[in-house]
Amino acid sequence: MVAIKDLPEEEYVLEGNAACPGCPITIALRTVLKALGKDTIMTVPASCSAVIQSLYPKTSFAVPTLNIAFEAAAASASGIEAALHAQGKDDVTVLAWAGDGGSYDIGLQALSGALERGTNFIYVCYNNQMYSNTGVQRSGATPYGAWTTTTWTGKKERQKNLAEIAMAHNIPYVATASIAYPTDLYRKAKKAKEIKGPKYMEIIAPCPPGWRFDMSKTVEMAKLAVETGAWLMYEFENGKLTFNGPSKGIVEGSREPKPVEDWLKMQGRFRNLTEEDIQKIKRDLKEGWEFYRKKSQLF
Amino acid sequence: MKTTISYPTKEAMGKTGSWRVFRPVLHEDKCIKCWMCWVFCPESAIRKEEFPKIDYDFCKGCGVCANECPVNAIEMRREEK
Ligand SMILES: Cc1ncc(C[n+]2csc(CCOP(=O)(O)OP(=O)(O)O)c2C)c(N)n1
Ligand code: SF4
Ligand code: SF4
Ligand code: SF4
Ligand SMILES: [Mg+2]
Hints:
The complex is a heterodimer of chains A (299) and B (81).
Chain A: H1 24-36, E1 40-45, H2 48-52, E2 58-59, E3 65-68, H3 73-86, E4 93-99, H4 100-105, H5 108-116, E5 122-127, H6 162-167, E6 173-178, H7 182-194, E7 199-204, H8 208-211, H9 218-227, E8 234-237, E9 240-243, H10 246-252, H11 260-264, H12 275-298
Parallel strand pairs in A: 1-3, 1-4, 4-5, 5-7, 6-7
Antiparallel strand pairs in A: 6-8, 8-9
Chain B: E1 7-8, E2 22-26, H1 36-40, E3 46-48, E4 52-54, H2 64-68, E5 74-78
Antiparallel strand pairs in B: 2-5, 3-4
Protein backbone atom coordinates (compact mmCIF):
# COMPACT_ATOMS: atom_id res chain seq x y z
CA MET A 1 0.00 0.00 0.00
CA VAL A 2 1.21 3.51 -0.84
CA ALA A 3 2.51 5.56 2.13
CA ILE A 4 0.89 8.87 3.08
CA LYS A 5 4.06 10.76 2.16
CA ASP A 6 3.94 9.30 -1.37
CA LEU A 7 0.36 10.34 -2.19
CA PRO A 8 0.24 12.80 -5.11
CA GLU A 9 0.55 16.46 -4.16
CA GLU A 10 -1.89 17.70 -6.82
CA GLU A 11 -4.99 19.23 -5.29
CA TYR A 12 -8.34 19.14 -7.07
CA VAL A 13 -10.33 20.61 -4.17
CA LEU A 14 -9.07 24.16 -4.03
CA GLU A 15 -8.50 26.39 -1.03
CA GLY A 16 -11.09 29.00 -0.23
CA ASN A 17 -14.11 26.73 -0.83
CA ALA A 18 -17.50 26.93 0.86
CA ALA A 19 -17.34 23.77 3.01
CA CYS A 20 -17.85 24.08 6.77
CA PRO A 21 -14.64 23.88 8.82
CA GLY A 22 -13.86 20.21 9.47
CA CYS A 23 -15.98 18.97 6.54
CA PRO A 24 -15.60 15.24 5.79
CA ILE A 25 -16.56 15.61 2.11
CA THR A 26 -13.53 17.65 1.14
CA ILE A 27 -11.24 15.24 3.03
CA ALA A 28 -12.74 12.32 1.09
CA LEU A 29 -12.81 14.04 -2.29
CA ARG A 30 -9.21 15.29 -2.02
CA THR A 31 -7.97 11.72 -1.64
CA VAL A 32 -10.28 10.21 -4.26
CA LEU A 33 -9.29 12.79 -6.89
CA LYS A 34 -5.60 12.32 -6.07
CA ALA A 35 -6.19 8.68 -7.04
CA LEU A 36 -8.25 9.34 -10.18
CA GLY A 37 -6.19 12.24 -11.50
CA LYS A 38 -7.03 15.11 -13.83
CA ASP A 39 -8.60 13.05 -16.62
CA THR A 40 -11.80 12.71 -14.63
CA ILE A 41 -15.27 14.09 -15.25
CA MET A 42 -17.44 14.37 -12.19
CA THR A 43 -21.19 14.61 -11.83
CA VAL A 44 -22.64 15.97 -8.59
CA PRO A 45 -26.32 16.01 -7.60
CA ALA A 46 -27.91 18.53 -5.22
CA SER A 47 -26.04 18.10 -1.92
CA CYS A 48 -23.37 19.76 0.20
CA SER A 49 -20.91 18.83 -2.58
CA ALA A 50 -22.76 21.15 -4.95
CA VAL A 51 -22.59 24.00 -2.44
CA ILE A 52 -18.94 23.46 -1.49
CA GLN A 53 -17.96 24.46 -5.05
CA SER A 54 -19.14 27.98 -4.09
CA LEU A 55 -20.73 30.49 -6.44
CA TYR A 56 -20.88 31.18 -10.17
CA PRO A 57 -18.67 32.17 -11.97
CA LYS A 58 -16.12 30.39 -9.75
CA THR A 59 -15.75 26.80 -8.60
CA SER A 60 -13.47 25.14 -6.07
CA PHE A 61 -13.37 21.82 -7.93
CA ALA A 62 -10.53 21.56 -10.41
CA VAL A 63 -11.89 18.74 -12.59
CA PRO A 64 -14.78 19.23 -15.06
CA THR A 65 -17.94 18.92 -12.99
CA LEU A 66 -21.59 18.70 -13.98
CA ASN A 67 -24.06 19.86 -11.36
CA ILE A 68 -27.30 17.99 -11.83
CA ALA A 69 -30.72 17.38 -10.24
CA PHE A 70 -30.90 15.52 -6.92
CA GLU A 71 -32.01 12.17 -8.43
CA ALA A 72 -29.78 12.19 -11.50
CA ALA A 73 -26.16 11.42 -10.51
CA ALA A 74 -26.04 7.94 -12.04
CA ALA A 75 -28.28 8.83 -15.01
CA SER A 76 -26.04 11.76 -15.94
CA ALA A 77 -22.92 9.63 -15.47
CA SER A 78 -24.39 7.16 -17.99
CA GLY A 79 -24.88 9.99 -20.47
CA ILE A 80 -21.37 11.33 -19.97
CA GLU A 81 -19.90 7.86 -20.39
CA ALA A 82 -21.89 7.25 -23.59
CA ALA A 83 -20.78 10.60 -25.04
CA LEU A 84 -17.12 9.94 -24.18
CA HIS A 85 -17.34 6.45 -25.67
CA ALA A 86 -18.85 7.82 -28.90
CA GLN A 87 -15.86 10.17 -29.13
CA GLY A 88 -13.40 7.36 -28.51
CA LYS A 89 -12.31 8.90 -25.21
CA ASP A 90 -12.37 5.73 -23.18
CA ASP A 91 -9.43 6.78 -21.01
CA VAL A 92 -11.44 9.40 -19.14
CA THR A 93 -12.78 8.36 -15.73
CA VAL A 94 -16.42 9.19 -15.02
CA LEU A 95 -17.12 9.79 -11.35
CA ALA A 96 -20.58 10.21 -9.86
CA TRP A 97 -20.10 11.86 -6.46
CA ALA A 98 -23.30 11.80 -4.45
CA GLY A 99 -24.54 12.00 -0.88
CA ASP A 100 -26.49 9.31 0.92
CA GLY A 101 -29.79 11.09 0.27
CA GLY A 102 -28.98 11.22 -3.44
CA SER A 103 -27.96 7.54 -3.38
CA TYR A 104 -30.04 5.58 -0.86
CA ASP A 105 -33.22 7.53 -1.51
CA ILE A 106 -34.08 9.65 -4.52
CA GLY A 107 -31.24 8.49 -6.79
CA LEU A 108 -31.65 4.77 -6.16
CA GLN A 109 -33.47 3.80 -9.33
CA ALA A 110 -31.03 5.77 -11.51
CA LEU A 111 -28.15 4.09 -9.69
CA SER A 112 -29.65 0.63 -10.07
CA GLY A 113 -30.27 1.27 -13.76
CA ALA A 114 -26.70 2.40 -14.40
CA LEU A 115 -25.27 -0.59 -12.51
CA GLU A 116 -27.50 -3.00 -14.40
CA ARG A 117 -26.63 -1.48 -17.78
CA GLY A 118 -22.94 -1.99 -17.11
CA THR A 119 -22.08 1.71 -17.32
CA ASN A 120 -18.31 2.13 -17.11
CA PHE A 121 -18.09 4.55 -14.20
CA ILE A 122 -17.29 4.93 -10.52
CA TYR A 123 -20.18 5.81 -8.26
CA VAL A 124 -19.12 7.15 -4.87
CA CYS A 125 -21.67 7.68 -2.13
CA TYR A 126 -20.12 9.76 0.65
CA ASN A 127 -22.28 8.81 3.55
CA ASN A 128 -22.88 11.42 6.25
CA GLN A 129 -26.02 9.52 7.22
CA MET A 130 -28.49 12.36 6.60
CA TYR A 131 -29.50 15.22 4.32
CA SER A 132 -26.88 17.73 5.46
CA ASN A 133 -27.27 20.41 2.88
CA THR A 134 -30.89 21.15 3.73
CA GLY A 135 -30.23 21.23 7.48
CA VAL A 136 -30.16 17.64 8.75
CA GLN A 137 -33.14 15.52 7.73
CA ARG A 138 -33.28 11.73 8.00
CA SER A 139 -32.26 9.59 5.04
CA GLY A 140 -32.38 5.85 4.39
CA ALA A 141 -28.80 5.84 5.70
CA THR A 142 -29.56 7.47 9.07
CA PRO A 143 -28.89 4.88 11.76
CA TYR A 144 -31.35 3.72 14.42
CA GLY A 145 -31.67 6.13 17.31
CA ALA A 146 -30.10 9.15 15.62
CA TRP A 147 -31.64 12.57 16.03
CA THR A 148 -32.34 14.59 12.91
CA THR A 149 -34.83 17.44 12.43
CA THR A 150 -37.32 14.89 11.07
CA THR A 151 -36.55 12.21 13.69
CA TRP A 152 -36.30 14.47 16.71
CA THR A 153 -36.93 11.68 19.22
CA GLY A 154 -34.44 9.42 17.47
CA LYS A 155 -34.94 7.44 14.26
CA LYS A 156 -37.08 4.36 14.80
CA GLU A 157 -35.80 2.36 11.83
CA ARG A 158 -32.43 0.83 10.97
CA GLN A 159 -30.50 2.11 7.98
CA LYS A 160 -30.63 0.08 4.79
CA ASN A 161 -27.51 -1.47 3.34
CA LEU A 162 -26.89 0.10 -0.05
CA ALA A 163 -23.54 -1.60 -0.65
CA GLU A 164 -25.37 -4.94 -0.40
CA ILE A 165 -27.90 -3.71 -2.96
CA ALA A 166 -25.01 -2.69 -5.23
CA MET A 167 -23.44 -6.16 -4.84
CA ALA A 168 -26.73 -7.76 -5.83
CA HIS A 169 -26.23 -6.21 -9.29
CA ASN A 170 -23.21 -8.51 -9.82
CA ILE A 171 -20.92 -5.61 -10.65
CA PRO A 172 -17.14 -6.10 -10.73
CA TYR A 173 -16.24 -3.91 -7.75
CA VAL A 174 -17.86 -2.69 -4.56
CA ALA A 175 -15.83 -1.13 -1.75
CA THR A 176 -16.51 0.64 1.52
CA ALA A 177 -13.98 2.99 3.09
CA SER A 178 -13.47 5.59 5.80
CA ILE A 179 -11.90 9.02 5.55
CA ALA A 180 -9.74 8.06 8.56
CA TYR A 181 -7.89 5.48 6.41
CA PRO A 182 -6.71 7.60 3.44
CA THR A 183 -4.22 5.13 2.00
CA ASP A 184 -6.90 2.40 1.97
CA LEU A 185 -9.32 4.82 0.30
CA TYR A 186 -6.67 5.86 -2.22
CA ARG A 187 -5.86 2.25 -3.08
CA LYS A 188 -9.54 1.43 -3.57
CA ALA A 189 -10.18 4.45 -5.81
CA LYS A 190 -7.09 3.59 -7.88
CA LYS A 191 -8.28 0.02 -8.25
CA ALA A 192 -11.77 1.15 -9.23
CA LYS A 193 -10.23 3.33 -11.93
CA GLU A 194 -8.50 0.32 -13.51
CA ILE A 195 -11.57 -1.94 -13.58
CA LYS A 196 -14.01 -1.74 -16.51
CA GLY A 197 -17.72 -1.58 -15.81
CA PRO A 198 -19.71 -0.19 -12.88
CA LYS A 199 -17.88 0.36 -9.59
CA TYR A 200 -19.69 1.33 -6.39
CA MET A 201 -17.85 2.85 -3.43
CA GLU A 202 -19.16 4.19 -0.17
CA ILE A 203 -17.23 6.33 2.32
CA ILE A 204 -18.28 7.06 5.88
CA ALA A 205 -18.20 10.85 6.29
CA PRO A 206 -18.92 12.18 9.80
CA CYS A 207 -20.37 15.71 9.59
CA PRO A 208 -19.67 17.95 12.63
CA PRO A 209 -22.78 20.18 12.52
CA GLY A 210 -25.11 17.30 11.62
CA TRP A 211 -23.82 14.69 14.03
CA ARG A 212 -23.17 17.34 16.67
CA PHE A 213 -19.52 16.98 17.55
CA ASP A 214 -16.55 19.34 17.61
CA MET A 215 -15.18 20.17 14.14
CA SER A 216 -11.68 18.98 15.09
CA LYS A 217 -12.98 15.41 15.60
CA THR A 218 -14.10 14.56 12.04
CA VAL A 219 -11.31 12.07 11.38
CA GLU A 220 -11.37 10.69 14.92
CA MET A 221 -15.08 10.00 14.50
CA ALA A 222 -14.48 8.19 11.20
CA LYS A 223 -11.75 6.11 12.85
CA LEU A 224 -13.88 5.22 15.87
CA ALA A 225 -16.72 4.18 13.57
CA VAL A 226 -14.36 1.53 12.19
CA GLU A 227 -12.72 0.54 15.48
CA THR A 228 -16.10 -0.01 17.13
CA GLY A 229 -17.39 -1.97 14.15
CA ALA A 230 -20.17 0.57 13.54
CA TRP A 231 -18.70 0.87 10.03
CA LEU A 232 -17.05 -1.97 8.11
CA MET A 233 -14.39 -1.51 5.47
CA TYR A 234 -14.36 -4.13 2.73
CA GLU A 235 -13.94 -4.91 -0.94
CA PHE A 236 -16.09 -7.13 -3.09
CA GLU A 237 -14.21 -8.12 -6.19
CA ASN A 238 -15.21 -10.80 -8.69
CA GLY A 239 -17.55 -12.29 -6.13
CA LYS A 240 -14.95 -12.35 -3.37
CA LEU A 241 -15.40 -10.37 -0.16
CA THR A 242 -12.30 -9.13 1.74
CA PHE A 243 -12.30 -7.04 4.92
CA ASN A 244 -9.70 -4.34 5.49
CA GLY A 245 -8.00 -2.78 8.50
CA PRO A 246 -9.64 -3.31 11.89
CA SER A 247 -12.83 -4.55 10.20
CA LYS A 248 -11.09 -7.82 9.28
CA GLY A 249 -10.50 -8.89 12.88
CA ILE A 250 -13.92 -7.66 14.00
CA VAL A 251 -15.73 -9.71 11.36
CA GLU A 252 -13.54 -12.78 11.86
CA GLY A 253 -14.00 -12.56 15.61
CA SER A 254 -10.27 -12.31 16.34
CA ARG A 255 -10.35 -8.64 17.38
CA GLU A 256 -12.35 -7.15 20.21
CA PRO A 257 -13.99 -3.99 18.87
CA LYS A 258 -13.98 -0.85 21.03
CA PRO A 259 -17.31 -0.39 22.83
CA VAL A 260 -19.75 1.33 20.48
CA GLU A 261 -20.65 3.70 23.35
CA ASP A 262 -17.26 5.36 22.80
CA TRP A 263 -18.51 6.41 19.36
CA LEU A 264 -22.13 7.13 20.27
CA LYS A 265 -21.32 9.30 23.28
CA MET A 266 -19.16 11.68 21.30
CA GLN A 267 -22.14 12.64 19.12
CA GLY A 268 -24.93 14.96 20.21
CA ARG A 269 -27.33 13.24 17.80
CA PHE A 270 -27.31 10.15 20.05
CA ARG A 271 -27.73 12.11 23.28
CA ASN A 272 -31.20 10.80 24.01
CA LEU A 273 -30.49 7.10 23.54
CA THR A 274 -31.78 4.88 26.35
CA GLU A 275 -29.84 1.92 27.71
CA GLU A 276 -32.27 -0.28 25.73
CA ASP A 277 -31.48 1.59 22.54
CA ILE A 278 -27.77 1.03 23.11
CA GLN A 279 -28.33 -2.69 23.70
CA LYS A 280 -30.36 -2.88 20.50
CA ILE A 281 -27.63 -1.09 18.56
CA LYS A 282 -25.07 -3.56 19.95
CA ARG A 283 -27.23 -6.55 18.97
CA ASP A 284 -27.73 -5.16 15.47
CA LEU A 285 -23.99 -4.60 15.04
CA LYS A 286 -23.17 -8.15 16.19
CA GLU A 287 -25.75 -9.51 13.79
CA GLY A 288 -24.11 -7.55 10.98
CA TRP A 289 -20.61 -8.87 11.76
CA GLU A 290 -21.96 -12.41 11.92
CA PHE A 291 -23.71 -11.98 8.57
CA TYR A 292 -20.47 -10.81 6.95
CA ARG A 293 -18.39 -13.49 8.63
CA LYS A 294 -20.61 -16.11 7.00
CA LYS A 295 -20.81 -14.26 3.70
CA SER A 296 -17.02 -13.95 3.39
CA GLN A 297 -16.72 -17.73 3.87
CA LEU A 298 -19.15 -18.47 1.04
CA PHE A 299 -16.66 -17.96 -1.79
CA MET B 1 -28.46 24.63 -25.29
CA LYS B 2 -26.69 27.26 -23.27
CA THR B 3 -25.45 26.37 -19.85
CA THR B 4 -23.57 28.37 -17.23
CA ILE B 5 -19.95 27.48 -16.67
CA SER B 6 -17.86 28.24 -13.59
CA TYR B 7 -14.08 28.05 -13.70
CA PRO B 8 -11.75 26.53 -11.11
CA THR B 9 -10.40 29.26 -8.88
CA LYS B 10 -8.61 29.25 -5.60
CA GLU B 11 -10.41 31.63 -3.29
CA ALA B 12 -13.81 30.98 -4.91
CA MET B 13 -15.44 31.74 -1.54
CA GLY B 14 -12.89 34.43 -0.67
CA LYS B 15 -10.12 34.32 1.92
CA THR B 16 -11.68 31.74 4.22
CA GLY B 17 -8.90 32.30 6.77
CA SER B 18 -11.12 35.08 8.12
CA TRP B 19 -13.50 32.36 9.45
CA ARG B 20 -10.83 31.20 11.89
CA VAL B 21 -11.18 31.51 15.66
CA PHE B 22 -8.24 29.27 16.60
CA ARG B 23 -4.97 29.28 14.68
CA PRO B 24 -2.95 26.10 14.22
CA VAL B 25 0.69 26.81 15.07
CA LEU B 26 3.35 24.27 14.11
CA HIS B 27 6.24 23.47 16.46
CA GLU B 28 8.89 22.28 14.04
CA ASP B 29 11.06 20.83 16.81
CA LYS B 30 8.37 18.24 17.55
CA CYS B 31 7.29 17.45 13.97
CA ILE B 32 8.21 13.96 12.72
CA LYS B 33 6.98 14.68 9.14
CA CYS B 34 4.38 11.93 9.04
CA TRP B 35 2.15 14.22 6.87
CA MET B 36 -1.05 13.23 8.65
CA CYS B 37 -1.95 16.93 8.98
CA TRP B 38 -1.47 17.36 5.24
CA VAL B 39 -3.56 14.37 4.17
CA PHE B 40 -6.46 15.19 6.51
CA CYS B 41 -6.72 18.98 6.13
CA PRO B 42 -10.27 19.49 4.76
CA GLU B 43 -9.20 22.77 3.21
CA SER B 44 -6.08 21.68 1.25
CA ALA B 45 -4.47 24.49 3.27
CA ILE B 46 -1.32 22.59 4.26
CA ARG B 47 1.49 22.20 1.78
CA LYS B 48 4.38 19.78 1.85
CA GLU B 49 7.54 21.81 2.18
CA GLU B 50 10.50 21.05 4.39
CA PHE B 51 7.91 21.09 7.17
CA PRO B 52 4.12 21.30 6.78
CA LYS B 53 3.33 24.84 5.65
CA ILE B 54 -0.07 26.15 6.69
CA ASP B 55 -1.71 28.72 4.42
CA TYR B 56 -3.35 31.11 6.87
CA ASP B 57 -5.16 32.93 4.07
CA PHE B 58 -7.45 29.90 3.79
CA CYS B 59 -7.09 27.73 6.92
CA LYS B 60 -10.52 27.75 8.59
CA GLY B 61 -9.11 26.76 11.97
CA CYS B 62 -11.02 23.49 12.28
CA GLY B 63 -8.26 21.86 14.34
CA VAL B 64 -8.36 18.51 12.50
CA CYS B 65 -4.60 18.77 11.89
CA ALA B 66 -3.87 19.33 15.59
CA ASN B 67 -6.23 16.53 16.59
CA GLU B 68 -4.62 14.03 14.20
CA CYS B 69 -0.98 14.95 14.78
CA PRO B 70 0.49 11.91 16.59
CA VAL B 71 3.09 13.96 18.51
CA ASN B 72 1.10 17.12 19.32
CA ALA B 73 3.32 19.29 17.16
CA ILE B 74 0.40 21.58 16.28
CA GLU B 75 -1.03 23.89 18.89
CA MET B 76 -4.39 25.66 18.47
CA ARG B 77 -4.05 29.26 19.67
CA ARG B 78 -6.90 31.72 19.92
CA GLU B 79 -6.64 34.44 17.29
CA GLU B 80 -6.00 37.95 18.61
CA LYS B 81 -8.69 40.44 17.67
C1 LIG C 1 -36.12 16.86 -6.13
C2 LIG C 1 -35.46 17.62 -5.04
N1 LIG C 1 -35.94 17.50 -3.77
C3 LIG C 1 -35.33 18.16 -2.76
C4 LIG C 1 -34.24 18.96 -3.01
C5 LIG C 1 -33.59 19.71 -1.87
N2 LIG C 1 -32.32 19.13 -1.49
C6 LIG C 1 -31.15 19.62 -1.95
S1 LIG C 1 -29.81 18.81 -1.32
C7 LIG C 1 -30.81 17.82 -0.40
C8 LIG C 1 -30.23 16.79 0.54
C9 LIG C 1 -29.02 16.11 0.07
O1 LIG C 1 -28.65 15.09 0.95
P1 LIG C 1 -27.49 14.10 0.60
O2 LIG C 1 -27.70 13.52 -0.73
O3 LIG C 1 -27.35 13.15 1.72
O4 LIG C 1 -26.20 15.05 0.50
P2 LIG C 1 -25.56 15.95 1.65
O5 LIG C 1 -26.32 17.23 1.68
O6 LIG C 1 -25.68 15.20 2.93
O7 LIG C 1 -24.16 16.19 1.21
C10 LIG C 1 -32.16 18.11 -0.61
C11 LIG C 1 -33.27 17.44 0.09
C12 LIG C 1 -33.78 19.07 -4.34
N3 LIG C 1 -32.71 19.81 -4.64
N4 LIG C 1 -34.39 18.38 -5.32
S1 SF4 D 1 -22.96 20.29 6.62
FE1 SF4 D 1 -21.44 18.66 7.00
S2 SF4 D 1 -21.13 17.64 5.03
FE2 SF4 D 1 -22.16 19.61 4.63
S3 SF4 D 1 -20.50 21.07 4.17
FE3 SF4 D 1 -20.92 21.21 6.38
S4 SF4 D 1 -19.52 19.73 7.34
FE4 SF4 D 1 -19.58 19.26 5.15
S1 SF4 E 1 -6.92 23.99 11.25
FE1 SF4 E 1 -8.12 22.81 9.74
S2 SF4 E 1 -8.09 24.09 7.89
FE2 SF4 E 1 -6.45 24.85 9.23
S3 SF4 E 1 -4.62 23.78 8.56
FE3 SF4 E 1 -5.47 22.60 10.28
S4 SF4 E 1 -6.77 21.04 9.27
FE4 SF4 E 1 -6.36 22.64 7.74
S1 SF4 F 1 0.90 15.55 11.73
FE1 SF4 F 1 2.29 16.50 13.21
S2 SF4 F 1 4.18 15.32 13.08
FE2 SF4 F 1 2.94 14.80 11.29
S3 SF4 F 1 3.71 16.21 9.69
FE3 SF4 F 1 1.95 17.21 10.66
S4 SF4 F 1 2.81 18.47 12.28
FE4 SF4 F 1 4.41 17.05 11.67
MG1 LIG G 1 -25.97 13.13 3.28
